[in-house]
Automatic annotation (TrEMBL):
It comes from Puma concolor (Mountain lion). Catalyzes the NADPH-dependent reduction of trans-2-enoyl thioesters in mitochondrial fatty acid synthesis (fatty acid synthesis type II). Fatty acid chain elongation in mitochondria uses acyl carrier protein (ACP) as an acyl group carrier, but the enzyme accepts both ACP and CoA thioesters as substrates in vitro. Displays a preference for medium-chain over short- and long-chain substrates. May provide the octanoyl chain used for lipoic acid biosynthesis, regulating protein lipoylation and mitochondrial respiratory activity particularly in Purkinje cells. Pfam families: ADH_N, ADH_zinc_N. Keywords: Fatty acid biosynthesis, Fatty acid metabolism, Lipid biosynthesis, Lipid metabolism, Mitochondrion, NADP, Oxidoreductase, Transit peptide. InterPro entries: ADH-like_C, ADH-like_N, ER, GroES-like_sf, Mito_Enoyl-ACP_Reductase, NAD(P)-bd_dom_sf. GO terms for molecular function: enoyl-[acyl-carrier-protein] reductase (NADPH) activity. It is found in: Mitochondrion. This is Enoyl-[acyl-carrier-protein] reductase, mitochondrial. It catalyses: (2E)-hexadecenoyl-[ACP] + NADPH + H(+) = hexadecanoyl-[ACP] + NADP(+); (2E)-decenoyl-[ACP] + NADPH + H(+) = decanoyl-[ACP] + NADP(+); a 2,3-saturated acyl-[ACP] + NADP(+) = a (2E)-enoyl-[ACP] + NADPH + H(+); (2E)-octenoyl-[ACP] + NADPH + H(+) = octanoyl-[ACP] + NADP(+). The gene is MECR. SMART domains: PKS_ER. GO terms for biological process: fatty acid biosynthetic process.
Amino acid sequence: MLAAPINPSDINMIQGNYGLLPKLPAVGGNEGVGQVVAVGSSVTGVKPGDWVIPANAGLGTWRTEAVFSEEALIGVPSDIPLQSAATLSVNPCTAYRMLMDFEQLQPGDSVIQNASNSGVGQAVIQIAAALGLRTVNVVRDRPDIQKLTDRLKSLGAEHVLTEEELRKHEMKNFFKDMPQPRLALNCVGGKSSTELLRHLARGGTMVTYGGMAKQPVIASVSQLIFKDLKLRGFWLSQWKKDHSPAQFKELILTLCSLISRGQLTAPACSEVPLQDYQRALEASMQPFVSSKQILTMC
């Protein structure tokens, strides 16, 4: 193993409250990148020196070395940045599928999302920009809000708003200058998701892929009847079950080409040596963290 991030889903899995739990005893970590050291005589898909990432969750990436079957791994180009390879198989895949699978969006259409500084949020901003989509990005207010706004805009965010700004009456005029979003991406739940629904175009879809507020999604009856809004959920593990390994590999290579063209970068990361994993775990569970903790093994 070369590097592996700490994601919220990794923490949820350890806590035992995730939709997919490994058999115990288990190694933590659902994604990362490793380098092939040696292969068995019948292995044809990868060779020593190749970079590989896990094909599925639950492989246990927080370790220095492991032996896996060829089917458990996907080869990726070794000329992309290490942090991009280590954070490739969860957040960017989720972002790409949500942008492609729920609404037939065209260049110029807009998307609204909360938790916009999360790993998925940063990937949504960049992939949307590459597709010619406009993004309205909602974040929680914080002391360094201007710094965060500047960073998200540097990734391609058209608008960055706080949760409070989204609730203001002036937002009615906001969508005179751009089309109302047909797609909302919700990682928070509670009041935040209710606000996203309020700004969706008639017939639009809100996709929920996380619940950071640990509160239910509340949609008003009028939104469902008069605006005919659709509420959907997305879980990458389920998408992978519904599609072939070849289709997942195709998704990975599509994202790798965006990385190679400079249209998709890794989220802001802090590299921590594996032996300091406790420090990294503590840092990953702090509020308002805009930097993903990445365990490095080499």
